[in-house]
Design goal:
Length: about 425
């Protein structure tokens, strides 16, 4: 029993044996058992319903409070303790048992007590966002588990239990309840495949409203999409500021998807860039997941393999995996004698209008066609290119450059030639668009 007062010793034991995780109800918590005389064993919610969450301020330190609740002389405890600096959670009494935290029988019987590290005389120092956020996650979990309404009737301060106390001091209830009531998950995002330098481009992010409040883009407590820090890609006159994008397209009710559509401005230089986004409410600041959106400025590479939907053949072609240097799972092949109209076709589906460099990969071998005919095709052009497939397998061989419409472009591989041998339909790569002259 003496070792129970020595929190450090118990932490060390927990880390060695994993015993610290054995008793927690809340997965984020670490288990530091309170002294057995500091709580009453029970069997909630069958013995008593769990109807309230009571918020406390320790007027003390996290480690000191853990020690105090492990000291049989204290005769007090709480179910959960939250650390100020990082929101770490200790559980000391099981949710089924009655912690002695309220000093009022009804609330000891029917509430879960959460103690927060700090001193009410200096809330700016101790009542941190990390602590509020961690506590709010815990309260969301408790209210969901025991079906407790997420209202100020059921989530209360110690001073609202009838006990003569000022605990929890200047707790920010507006912020805390908004944190408890708001939650989100990313559903999807869309960014253009090709973006020109300095261009504005449209981005759409969709989030599921997993919380209890509507998301409205306007009003006194709007829900908006923001950036993590000031964004260099904001569009003046369209964004609210350099770190607030705007609200959802329409007011989003709980369990519905909210769509945020907005423009960004690309940098002047080609390259790959990332911007982090996060939802925010006026009353609480950022909430929900941080979502990194990556976009590429400048020419793009795209590979169309023979197993991709853009590939098709006419006539009879074999499927093979022999030799080395192919792209993907296999390639298609066909002898050029007897001469036929059989053709392999790659649909290029150019992401934007402009010039594209076209490359082909094949698996070379001695039985290959020395004058295999590719054709680069768009609306008005048909550029024939002959290649020697006995050589240069397993690499991107440049066939040429062609102007493609957005969504357009095809490459054909014909099954004839002036020598016998196999033509190999493996994969095509396009790179572009490059601006015209
Ligand atoms: Ca292939």
């Amino acid at each position: 029993m003496g070792m129970r007062n020595r929190a450090g010793w118990i932490v060390g034991l927990s880390m060695l044996t994993g015993a610290g995780w054995a008793q927690v109800d809340y997965p984020e918590a670490t288990w530091y058992p309170a002294a057995s005389v500091n709580f009453a064993t029970s069997n909630r919610p069958s013995s008593y319903p769990i109807t309230h969450v009571v918020i406390h301020i320790m007027e003390g330190y996290y480690n000191g409070s853990i020690s105090w609740f492990q000291n049989p002389a204290s005769r007090v405890s709480a179910h959960y303790l939250i650390r100020s600096t990082d929101g770490a959670v200790a559980q000391m009494v099981r949710e089924k048992d009655l912690a002695y935290h309220a000093g009022v029988s009804f609330y000891n019987q029917q509430a879960v007590g959460i103690e927060h590290e700090g001193f009410s005389s200096n809330p700016a120092l101790w009542y941190t966002d990390a602590q509020y956020a961690s506590s709010a996650r815990l309260t969301r979990y408790l209210t969901a588990k025991f079906n407790i309404p997420r209202t100020r009737t059921n989530i209360i301060g110690h001073n609202e239990t009838g006990r003569a106390t000022s605990c929890p001091g200047p707790w920010d209830w507006t912020k805390y309840m908004a944190m408890v009531r708001n939650s989100a998950a990313l559903v999807g995002s869309s960014v253009p495949i090709y973006i020109q330098p300095n261009a504005t481009f449209q981005v759409t992010l969709t989030f599921l409203n997993q919380g209890d409040d509507n998301w409205a883009g306007t009003g006194s407590d709007p829900c908006r999409l923001g950036t993590v820090g000031a964004s260099p890609y904001w569009v003046s006159g369209e964004w609210v500021s350099d770190q607030i994008v705007g609200g959802p397209t329409t007011t989003t009710i709980p369990n519905a998807n909210g769509t945020f559509t907005f423009n960004m401005r690309a940098p002047a230089s080609n390259g790959t860039y990332t911007q982090d986004f996060q939802l925010r409410r006026g009353s609480i600041g950022p909430f929900g997941p941080i979502v990194p959106i990556t976009f590429r400025v400048g020419p793009t590479e795209k590979i169309i393999d023979n197993t991709d939907p853009g590939f098709s053949v006419t006539g009879t072609w074999s499927t093979s995996t022999s030799g080395t240097g192919r792209i993907g799972a296999d390639f298609r092949n066909r002898a050029v004698t007897p001469k036929s109209e059989a053709t392999a076709t790659w649909a290029l589906d150019a992401p934007a209008e402009g010039f594209y460099d076209i490359y082909a990969n094949w698996v070379s071998g001695t039985n290959r066609q020395r004058n295999a005919l590719f054709e680069l095709v768009d609306r008005r052009e048909n550029i024939p290119v002959f290649v020697d497939m006995t050589q240069n397998g397993g690499t991107w061989n440049k066939l040429g450059r062609i102007y493609l419409r957005q969504g357009g472009g095809r490459v054909h591989l014909r099954s004839f030639g002036n020598t016998s041998g196999q033509v190999i339909a493996d994969a095509i790569k396009i790179e572009g668009p490059y601006p015209g002259l």
